[in-house]
Amino acid sequence: MRIFNFLRLFTFVALVGCSNESPKTEPPINDKLSESSLVVANKYLVRSEEENIIDFVKRYGWKMKQSGTGLRYVIENKGNGPLVEYGNTVMIAYTIRLLTGDIVASSDKNGLKQFVSGKGGVEAGLEEGIKLMRKGDQAKFILPSHLAFGLMGDGEKIPPRASLVYEVELIKIQQ
């Protein structure tokens, strides 16, 4: 039902936006109305994504915490040592899924991922989640689209506005 409503809204916006008329014959645009329509559409999309994430978590029975940014996380197997800090080089084993369950990337196929914490180069939600971990920790993160690949997706396997499910094991922390 949500997808059907989204498609109706998308079709309406596409039809209204696509016109063969010359810009000279169009009535002046009411910026308030246009802005209001976009705000309503965005709120609907955000609410729909949130409902999909909630349904996913309930379906799997995961007991997850939620950060102020919307990252959901659970640390399942606890390791030892200090938490990851800004500037630490980390190495992780990972599997990334869509909420549909489709695997879009994994260390089994692509190799371990190494990055410097806090320096960018990975999704904002992964940056946030990794700072909750210690060496040896295993965790699950759910990144809403604004903490993952956003409006555009990655142009390959991750579609636009996709929430991602990360299963992560922190293999190594280096100062």
Q: Provide the number of structural domains.
A: 2
Task: Label the CATH architecture of the largest domain.
Answer: Roll
* Form type: elongated
CA-based gyration radius = 20 Å
Number of helices: 4
Description:
It is a single chain. The protein has 175 residues and is of the alpha+beta class. It has 2 domains: 2-19 and 26-60; 65-174, Chitinase A, domain 3 (Roll), CATH 3.10.50.40. Helices cover 33% and strands 25% of the residues. The chain is built from 4 helices and 7 strands. The protein has helices at residues 2-17, 31-60, 107-110, 124-130, and strands at residues 65-66, 72-77, 89-98, 103-106, 113-116, 138-143, 164-174. Strands 1, 2, 3, 4, 5, 6 and 7 form a 7-stranded antiparallel sheet that branches. Strand 3 and strand 4 form a beta hairpin. The mean pLDDT is 87.
Features:
elongated; 4 helices; alpha+beta; 175 residues; 2 domains; Chitinase A, domain 3; seven-stranded antiparallel β-sheet
Quick rundown:
By secondary structure, this protein is of the alpha+beta class. The chain has helices spanning 2-17, 31-60, 107-110, 124-130; strands spanning 65-66, 72-77, 89-98, 103-106, 113-116, 138-143, 164-174.
